[in-house]
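Students often ask why we bother predicting the structure of a whole assembly rather than each chain alone. The short answer is interfaces. A chain on its own may look different once its partners are present, and contacts between molecules only exist in the joint model. In this exercise we take three input lines together and write out one structure for the complete complex. Read the inputs first and try to guess which parts will touch.
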Amino acid sequence: MTRITDILGLEALREEILKHRSKDRTILRTCISTGCKAQKSLKVVEALKAAIKEQGLEEKVEIKKTGCHGFCEMGPIMVIEPENIFYRKVKPRDVEEILSTLNGSGGVVERLLWKDPVTKELTTYERELPLYKKQDKNVTYRSGKIDPADIEDYIASGGYSALAKALNSMKPSEVMDAVIASGLRGRGGGGFSTGVKWRICSSAPGDIKYIIANGDEGDPGAFMDRSLMEGDPHSIVEGMVITAYAIGASQGFIYVREEYPIAIEHLSLAIIKAEEYGLLGQDIMGTGFNFKVQINKGAGAFVCGEETSLMISIEGRSGTPRSRPPYPAIEGLWGKPTIINNVETLGNVPIIISKGDDAYAALGTDGSKGTKVFSLVGKVQNTGLIEVEMGTTRREIIFGIGGGIRNGKHFKAVQTGGASGGCMPIAKVDMPVDYDSLREAGAIMGSGGMIVMDETSCMVDVARYFIDFLMFESCGKCVPCREGLKQMHHIFENICEGHGEEGDIETLTGLARFMSTTSLCGLGSTAPNPVLSTIRHFRHEYESHIYDRKCRAGVCKNLFDYLIDSELCNGCGLCRVKCPEKAVAGEKKKPHIIDNSKCIKCGICFNSCKFEAILVK
Amino acid sequence: MKIQIIIDGHMVQVDRETSVLHAARKAGIVIPTLCYHEALKPYGACRLCMVEVVQNKQRRLVTSCNFPVETGVEVFTDTDKVRQVRRNIVKLLLARCPEVPMIQTMARRMGIETSGFKKKELKNCILCGLCVRFCEEVVGAAAIGLSNRGTEREVTTPFKASSNACIGCGSCTYICPAGCIEMVEDTKTPGMRKMNIGSLSLKICPNDYKCEDCDIEQQFIEETKNIITQFRDKFSNSAD
Amino acid sequence: MTMDFQAIDQILDKYGYRHTDIIGILQDAQSIENYLPEDSLHYISEKMEISLTRIFDIVTFYKAFSLMPRGKYIIRVCCGTACHLGGAQQNLDQLNRLLQIKDGETTDDRTFSLETVNCLGACALAPVVAVDEDYHEAVNAGKIGKMLSNYQEEE
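Now the answer. The structure tokens for the assembled complex follow.
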């Protein structure tokens, strides 16, 4: 451990680290983040360690535990450097075979390579995977490549050099100018100009200023921030220190939701290490600049992702938002000027400073510069995290990178912006993803969740899901949100259970418009978006539920039945065996029948049938 | 520093940072409120006081109780939009609290017969928060508070148990616009008062109502004397 | 059950009795018994001189807190969007059926507690059911019985 006491010390340390790194070793990058850990990647690491020791390969082979590679469905993921051979779904029993290919014979373990589900082609190298090939990795570049627990890995890859440049050769106002010129806008969903917000805060009266990194990623379906916090925590710390220098803050907070324990662990360690190395805390890099950071854990409230609610939570109260003005940049935490930036926004800051604002602004559109990380999930072939240039179309993302819809189904809608966002149909799929185009279309960028749906998704149910979610998460302070969501929930319940009535759609629309202009905070004012967008683009589904009492997607249990197609059913009996209510009858090799009076629509038979013989009626 | 703004066509001069609500009062215009009270910090929960404001060429709805005026702001308190907002707030509250007299009166005055909403409840608390805020901010007892969140948010004492922080001042009873907090004689223990928020009783007096030799009472009197002395000292010092 | 006052005192010391850290203090205090007994809240209120009313507001507002004892294993059904579309509701229904408890409840023998959670951030593995720190991916109603039996066998 070397404490860096002057600006040149960082560069010297980097050279030292690189010098001592053996070029001869093969490095096995193994992901231990949430997705891969859930699929037992730690057991793979254990097995690797044991096998390496047994075979005496410690000098030749190194295990590097990394953060999220963004392709979680394929976990546990292992990438073999230097060629970057990509292995997926690695199990402990595969370890021996993997090690045997490293002895110079140059082979690969084919069964661990990624196979295209449609063409069945194998892909050997990481850079050629469809999910990665077309990405513009900027903020997510390091995650999956470095060991997030090892600060020297971060430094070796150029980390903290942006901070050194800022402290050494830029005035605080120049740092702000650079961020303004880069065009960086808030990546948490607000889309406000980051640099302009900094400038407002910096000019606000008062010596005490605060920075808060918002890692409360509450949008269901979004895990970009989780991945960044787990996989590259130092980029967030570095971003915060640069921001603190720019606006004159001496204390920072990272607010992380408690549902992300690995992120909390990695960030905590990053703070300790950064302080040890003189990159955080007192007298940073010997410049006399002081800035310390603490972590505050969320406690299970989505509303605390909203700025004023987040601040109240840090102050030790229940997270009820307050009106703005006053804006946090002028009057925030404990009444002091406060900058609240999403962690992805902060992750962009070191990149802007080291590459320069014009290089950063060379990517993206006029109004939306740089890149954005999205979580592409749902019914696409390739699910995971993707970082693309702003302005990329949804078609390129869903069909190009995502590989189109899985299981031979068809695209129905894509939902962007989380619970505050809208559902867009195929007609809008050529729209570019940037702040302004999305807003014009009635959706929002939001935090970056992008959920793809097929014909088995019911759009009324999707709207209902979001309303239920928001009703559960609403703080309950203001009348429009609390009472409005309650009434909407009731209407959706009726519609989805077969008791919808004439006028329900109009009541929903009226309530939605009312809530959007009168709610106290962003939760209530954007809650209408999923409702309004699904009514706008999928009205026929609402009408089908209300007037025909039918859910054609097969989701709303009271509005459909399962039926076995006697021509497709070959009598294998799998559904009969699996049915928990014994509602399926039939003889072996003869078409089976479902007794609808017993059927509870659990979906087990529908999902198990290998012949797609069970239909929704 | 005085600034000029226009409210419903009237020119008004007010101090900077005055709320639209107060500025309107200066112009003799009354904006209806539910959760606002002079003695408390503005809350912005009921949304009934919303008005239209034009600032920097942008027109939007804001809550007048806590929106600070700036030079050149134009306020509209009686447009169709504003009246529609008020109607919707009252309708939603009517669906929640159909038997609260004040809500019934407001509805009647606006010509609203039914809420028009299907989810009907029979609550008597409108969640304006006045009782809770007064107990904490002014009285300093914090005996009652809010708990849970969203549609489950409610006014209660911790664990719905009888409170030993409540001093029985009756402020919450007085300030509640819905009249749902009552202070009554406790029928089980004569001389004791009971508050009905649901049914919560004050803790039994530990000294059998003998205030003359009660430690708690003596301490309270001492503290009050100290506060008054400090208050007078502050003023006599600043008067120098 | 006697409360571990010493453990709570240690937590209060760690945070320096700071009022603004009350949420962190309550989170640490909850990890002692895996829930927050009423006594512990009275104790913390007294020692920190924070009104019990404010503490009660916090522990009922934030869903990470539980005022009721919880089971040995806490099952969390992720109800994020991707998991919802993948069939989280069916999984929850199946758990209701097999364990005879609803969301927020604990089995009589205190083995399992059932909770729903809004997005664990493992969306690519949807639908996810977590049992303590084990995240089970691509769960469907048919797999639940076996998943539970793995934990029951350990008894």
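Check your guess against this: Chain A has a mean pLDDT of 93.
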